[in-house]
Amino acid sequence: MILGGIDIVTLIATLMAASTPVLLAATGELVAEKSGVLNLGVEGMMIIGAVAGFAAAVGTGSPVLGFLGGALAGALLATLFAVLTQVFLSNQTATGLALTMFGLGLSALFGKGFEGVRPPATGKVPFGPLSEIPGLGRILFSHDWVVYLSLALVVAVWAFLRFTRAGLILRAVGENAEAAHALGYRVVAVRLMALAFGGALAGMGGAYLSLVRVPQWTEGMTAGAGWIALAIVVFASWRAGRVLIGAYLFGGITALQLQLQAAGYAIPVHLLSMAPYVLTIVVLVVLSAIHRRGVQAAPAALGRSFHAST
Amino acid sequence: MNRRTFLQTTAATAVAAAAGLPARAADPLKVGFIYVGPIGDMGWSYQHDQARQAIAKEFGDKIVTTYVENVPEGPDAERALTQLALEGNQLIFATSFGFMDATVNVAKKFPKVKFEHATGYKRADNLATYDARFYEGRAIQGTIAGRMTKSNKIGYIGSFPIPEVVQGINSAYIHAKKVNPDVEIKVVWAYTWFDPAKEADAAAALIAEGCDVIMQHTDSTAPQAKAQEAGNVITFGQASDMAAFAPMPRVTSTIDNWEPYYKKRVAAMLDGSWTSESTWGGIGTGMVKIGEISSAVPAEVKAEVEALEAKIASGEYHPFTGPLNKQDGSAWLAAGATPDDGTLAGMNFFVEGIKAELPK
């Protein structure tokens, strides 16, 4: 299907792959923020995941183990953040920023030996004849398993937060930690788990960059993807479904501007690259307008430290 | 600022504080380099660093080399250059086009330090420029592309719309068109020298547009990796041989061979004969080398481009030989005419036949 010189099918298929790293990271960050913790270290966790995932995949020859390694490294870094902010009650914003810088430096150090190495290929999921369906086959049945996993995780997170008792507890901790504590829920334990989950997904998103999207390791290769993931969570007003829309929109604009160029359009690249951020600001303004009528988007306890004695 | 530059500032301050004196004549010559990407980019910065290692080996304890990698073009470059100068480096190579103004500024502040800026056009008494005629390599690539493409679509990943890149696009197109009149070239500007994810996406977009030849004017091997994934797409090693991707997708390469130039300039510093000049080397002087043509290239095409390479090397043929018109149809070169280097160095237009629009 061609529309204005742009192959829509290819565009959608490309943007799905291009958006997967930020989609994974944003889904993880959503869960962390829903528990009331603002972790600004997504970029750091992603790049650590990128290098660890790459190392694990090259070392073992298995991309699956690579993604697990990336997730594990991201979760470890997030646990460090969790211990600092939840046990030692350090400032979440400052600690998150420090985590990003720490991650960038550490990954550069560990990554030295992996420059110029090629990772094992992550295979596409074999759908057989399904992938031959014109149009839909390219969009729905031509991806690697991580793309499907990222989509499944969005659904799982949505269902978890909406329908399960554990999800309700997580939200209670994020809305009003004191009340949750008074009801006997272990606020710090819940937040530790939420943060570790967020870190694991960020790490996996990083591994997707180094193992599939590029595929190679280079220093600083996340190039701001973690910050975009953070913006997407706000854009999505803390809803899982909207995280998916936000991630595909952000990823889609990058893919679209490159494809528009490839199709021969002289487009204002800088304006287009700016568009998602402008949209995020618009969403924030709209949210705050709604907020005045009593609907709250951000978890009420977001960014506030909790201690059982307070 | 990254760790390295921080360490160097600290070290430089310590040295300056402890000594407070300029370097003595008996000391080894200190030679500094700044790179725009990591030396592990396997392309542009890697190649400069290979040459740095070669001179370090060649001159042994007569020189000491230092490098700072991942220096962003802009104010950070000025800081990195200043640090290198403060550290006592007497010869400093700034190896990216976007370092130009920073190098000019720092060269003014350190009149005794000699600077060398790659691919720029601003000189001073202590600032020399050097560049390679990458467009000669593009002539080879264009010929191979024109002969080998099946879709008649060539994709070109541009970094920034600057003369060096525009020369490459024009040269590739002219030579592809010469052997294949149906060929068209699609250009995607990445607006970065080094961003693997973006370069990979740009390559993917061009491949999706039907291009089965990808040329890159960016520094990482990400486009090569993307082309390899696609299977039936050919690429060319950029700046470095990128032999890890041979025989497919990388069918040959344009190698920036800085080693002889760096040796010459360091030797000139050592014997005191260094002067500010502008060097523009090509295949003939060995600054541009054509990498091994892989088995994926048909024998007759290989023979054809080898003949072309020889003619360019001997000066018998100039890749920009008239009759050539500009994109808007106005005449540029009359039949048989060739442009002077000044015109080439400021090239800011596409030649006739290219449909893409050059960003202003």
From TrEMBL, chain A:
Instruction: Using the record for this protein, list the coiled-coil segments as residue ranges, or answer none.
Output: none
* Keywords associated with the record: Cell membrane, Membrane, Transmembrane, Transmembrane helix
User: Which terms in the GO cellular component ontology are assigned?
Assistant: plasma membrane
* Localization (cell): Cell membrane
Q: Does the keyword Transmembrane apply?
A: yes
GO molecular function (one): transmembrane transporter activity
- InterPro entries of this UniProt entry? ABC_transp_permease
Superkingdom per UniProt: Bacteria
Q: Where do the TM regions start and end?
A: 6-25, 37-58, 64-84, 96-114, 145-161, 192-211, 217-236, 243-260, 266-287
**According to its record, how does it sit in the membrane?**
Multi-pass membrane protein
Task: Extract the PANTHER family matched here.
Answer: ABC TRANSPORTER PERMEASE PROTEIN (PTHR43370:SF2), SUGAR ABC TRANSPORTER INTEGRAL MEMBRANE PROTEIN-RELATED (PTHR43370)
Q: What is this protein called?
A: ABC transporter permease
Q: Which organism is it from?
A: Paenirhodobacter hankyongi
From TrEMBL, chain B:
Q: Which PROSITE patterns match?
A: TAT
Name of the protein this chain belongs to: BMP family ABC transporter substrate-binding protein
Cellular component terms per the entry's GO annotation: plasma membrane
NCBIfam families the record matches: TAT_signal_seq (TIGR01409)
Q: Where is the ABC transporter substrate-binding protein PnrA-like domain?
A: 30-316
Q: Which InterPro entries match?
A: ABC-Purine-Binding, PnrA-like, TAT_signal, TAT_signal_bac_arc
Q: Does the keyword Translocase apply?
A: no
Alphabetically ordered keywords of this record:
Signal
Q: Which organism's genome codes for this protein?
A: Paenirhodobacter hankyongi
Q: Which Gene3D superfamilies match?
A: 3.40.50.2300
